[in-house]
User: Which sequence fits this backbone?
């Protein structure tokens, strides 16, 4: 019932729908309509009520819930089931618990805010309430544990492309200054980190039980929303856009999440149908790592060299300072000559 009312209001966005029309077409009392309208308002929809004219839904809203996130989402796996939470410690932890309970592949946990988000290498991921986007996708691919890096790269490509699309729609020349990917999966805008991806796996020696791919994006934050120690190295889509196209910039959270789910799903289908080189090609198009002078830190092994390529398994291929070709499969890579880091290869 509530969703029927919402649908009618959405079909007449910014215009009144009379209470009497709603009552008749849905065959309920006026009191029942009012009860559902109140529930919608509590969810964040801005609805004006007038005794004479009825109800009207005001403009674009940014409500996040399962129905809004699923609406017109044409994916095959990712987001086929969506779990929305207003607040959670970590969407990755929540998704892992769901996966342990047998949640289907593609189940996606989206949170309005995260209070104990986790980053790679045991770091913390600090969110800024509802100005950010945070979600985690459960996947159960029939792959070997050693092959999963490609899934993280596919998520990074999907996210970079979705960020580019959102910016291009607002007039940014993304060929000149679009989203870059720093190996393996940090997304940068203007040399600064705008998104991080944390992939966690539960597996046996030769079999993946499930993966959780968690994506966190700084979306509508202002400069003052970042902790002091992050101001130099992190940014948000809004800060970036404000510099390029000043105005009343705002990114609708659910549109960004849906666009990433859509593109990630496409990439996931490519992986399942063995089109991995296509993902690698797209990753390289966004890369800000290849061709750069890097410092690789993989456990106790620390060395510097030139990042030459990535392998089909998603490993970074580095020619070290002694001329040896080495592959880096995990850990951290920092780019040493940061001058051109914002430019894509
Ligand atoms: C990193 O760059 O270190 C990875 C950050 C990953 C953050 C996301 S936010 C959604 C998901 N839930 C978490 O606790 N972490 C990931």
Assistant:
């Amino acid at each position: 019932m509530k969703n029927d009312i919402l649908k009618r209001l959405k079909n007449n966005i910014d215009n009144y729908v009379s209470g009497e029309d709603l009552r008749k077409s849905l065959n309920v009392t006026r009191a029942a309509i009012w009860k559902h309208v109140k529930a919608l308002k509590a969810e964040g929809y801005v609805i004006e009520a007038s005794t004479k004219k009825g109800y009207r839904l005001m403009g674009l809203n940014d409500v996040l819930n399962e129905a809004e996130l699923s609406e017109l989402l044409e994916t095959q796996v990712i987001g086929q089931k969506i779990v929305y939470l207003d607040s959670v410690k970590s969407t990755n932890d929540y998704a892992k618990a769901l996966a342990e309970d047998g949640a289907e592949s593609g189940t996606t946990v989206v949170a309005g805010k995260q209070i104990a988000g986790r980053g790679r290498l045991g770091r913390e991921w600090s969110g800024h309430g509802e100005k950010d986007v945070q979600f985690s996708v459960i996947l159960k691919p029939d792959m070997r544990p050693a092959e999963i890096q490609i899934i993280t790269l596919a998520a990074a490509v999907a996210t970079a492309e979705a960020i580019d699309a959102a910016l291009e729609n607002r007039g940014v020349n993304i060929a000149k200054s679009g989203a870059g990917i720093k190996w393996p999966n940090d997304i940068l805008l203007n040399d600064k980190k705008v998104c991080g991806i944390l992939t966690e796996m539960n597996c046996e020696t030769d079999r993946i039980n499930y993966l959780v791919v968690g994506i966190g994006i700084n979306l509508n934050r202002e400069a003052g929303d970042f902790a002091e120690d992050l101001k130099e190295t992190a940014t948000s889509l809004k800060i970036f856009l404000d510099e390029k196209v000043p105005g009343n910039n705002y990114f609708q959270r659910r549109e960004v999440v849906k666009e990433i789910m859509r593109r990630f799903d496409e990439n996931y289908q490519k992986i399942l149908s063995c089109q991995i080189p296509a993902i690698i090609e797209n990753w390289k198009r966004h890369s800000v790592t290849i061709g750069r002078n890097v410092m690789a830190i993989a456990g106790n092994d620390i060395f510097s060299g030139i990042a030459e390529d990535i392998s089909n398994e998603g490993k970074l291929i580095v020619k070290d300072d002694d001329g040896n070709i080495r592959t880096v499969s995990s850990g951290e890579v920092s780019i040493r000559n940061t001058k051109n880091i914002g430019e894509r290869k």
